[in-house]
Design goal:
- This protein is of the alpha/beta class.
- The chain is built from 12 helices and 18 strands.
- Helix 4 packs across helix 5 (170-181).
- The protein is globular and about 60 Å long.
- The model has no long low-confidence stretch (mean pLDDT 96).
Length: 339
Amino acid sequence: MKAVVCRSPGELVLEDRPAPSRPAPGWALVAVSHVGICGTDYHIFEGKHPFLAYPRIMGHEVSGTIIETGEGVNLDIGEPVIINPYLSCGKCIACRHGKPNCCVRIEVLGVHRDGAMCDQILVPAQNLYAADGLSLADAAAVEFLAIGAHAVRRARADPGTPALVIGAGPIGLGTAIFARIAGLDVTLLDMSSERLNFAATELGFPTLDGSRGAVPELVGQATSGEGYDMVFDATGNTQSVQSAFAHVAHGGTLVLVSVVKDDIVFSDPEFHKREMTLIGSRNALRADFVHVAASIRSGAVPLAKLVTHRTTLADTPRDLARWAHEKSGLIKAVIEVRS
C-alpha cells in the first residue's frame, strides 16, 4: 500500500509499505478515506515533538470504510466510520473510571504508533463510530472538533457565561464553536489579526487582538475590569497559559485545552484569592465524537469555512512541508486518500 512516511525531521516521502495483516479478534481493517492534518503532524515533520520515534506514518483525524473485520466485531463491510485515534488499555485506573482519553498507557495513532496517512489501517472496533450520514470528508473533521467539544463539556458552564477562548487556530476555533453551541457568550483572543479577522467575519465571534495592545488591559476593558468567568487556553504556548490565569474572574474557571512541555508557574495568592478552578482537558470521549457529528449534521458547525486547504496522498509530502511554514489563510487542511 502507499503511505506518507516522515523518515526524520524535515524528510517526508511517499513510499510502498506492506498492507496490514488480517484483523485480530476485536479489530477491523479500514480503508482510509480522508485525513485531517493537525498541528501535531506539523510538529512531527519539524522535529518539535518530544516523544516521537522516527520513521512514523502520521495522521490521526480519520474517516474510512470497513473492509474486513476480526472475530466478534459487529460492523458491516463497507460501513463508513469515524476513527477515534486514542487507543486505550481498558484496564488502568482511568479506563476503569470511564476516562480512556487519559489512559495510563494510551497510544495515539500517528504519534505513538503508525497512523492513517496511508491506504489502510487496523483499528480496534471499539474505536470506530458510524458516520451516520456524514460525508467521509466531513467525518474526518470530527476528531479535531471533539477536542474543543470535550473541553467545553469539562467546563460545565451555564448558558450565558462570559467566556474567553485564547488561540484562534483549529483547536481554539473548535472550542469557541462548541462553547457557543453550549450557549456561552464567547470572545476570541489571538495575536494574529488575520486569524481574528476570519473568526469575526466568517464565524461571527467578537475578538480581542493581542497584537494591538497589552492583553491584560484589553481584557479589563472588555469586562469592566472583572475578567472572564470562563477562560479556555488553546494556544500550546507556555507564556500564554501562564498569562491566562490573570484573565479569569473571581470565582471563575481556567481550562487548559492545549498542552505544553514546560512547567507552568502562577501566583498562588492570586489563585486562592479568586478561588479559581483549574481544569486540564485531554483528547475526547465517545460522547464528544457523537455530539460533534450531530452538530455537523444539524448545520451548527460551519465546516465548509474551516476546511481551507485540500490535497491528495501523493501530493502530501510536498504540500504538508509547504504548509508547515506558509500559514496565511490556512485553518484546516485535509488529505483525500480516496474519493
